[in-house]
What does this fold into?
Amino acid sequence: MRPWFQRRARRGSGLLAARASLLLQIAADRVALDLGAPVGSLPPADPTLDWLDLDGWLRLTLRRNAQVSWETTPVDSSDAARGIALLARALDEIKREGGATVEWPREATVDEVTYVITLSRPSLRGGEVYDDDGTTVAVPLFSLQVPREEAVRVVRRPPIVYPYNSATNLYQARVPARFMVRADGTVDPSSVSAAWPDGLAPLEPKLTAQYEIFRSMVEKAIPRGRYSPAMIADCAVPQAISWTFIFQIAR
It folds into this structure.
């Protein structure tokens, strides 16, 4: 499998995305040279890298004055960022040679645009990532053998019933929950946590009490669902799950 080098645009135009992807392709070619491969060929990864080193990000910012800057996940804070560090090193080399500039298109209406670059593995759809204009960019960076991975699958949904009093009084809720599915497919009861939604201000006591009813219902039901565990190669492994349960009355 090949990791792919991708970017996600926060804002910008197709012209800016094309210029960013050209710079990233130049950086990918430099990575190939650093790894000992000729331009135009996909090199094997650095022998010190393995499939656990493909996390991390590089935030690439283009500006109207043609200047380019970038920052990455600190390598000393996460060994998993060592893969993306190869890309940062290539950009540093290009900058020292005076090549890290991007001509700003006159049609662009913004003064800067930022892309987040991550390493990803190709899928049947080609590992696509879209910016806000729908442009697809996936640049091959290096090849690396990785084990097959499968996420947790829900075999039987948790038996959650709409609380009678809540339905009668037309109360609705969204309950975000996290829990750990163990390697044997069971839920670790101590890991189940249904929390207050992020960014939602405290409600009046009556509504808070209603939300607690929904939250309690979710926490009790999650361990009663059936799950197929996550797999790495042919080995079952534990995996943390995030799931938002929605209680909604059809109108």
Remarks:
- Residues 167 and 249 are 7 Å apart (CA to CA).
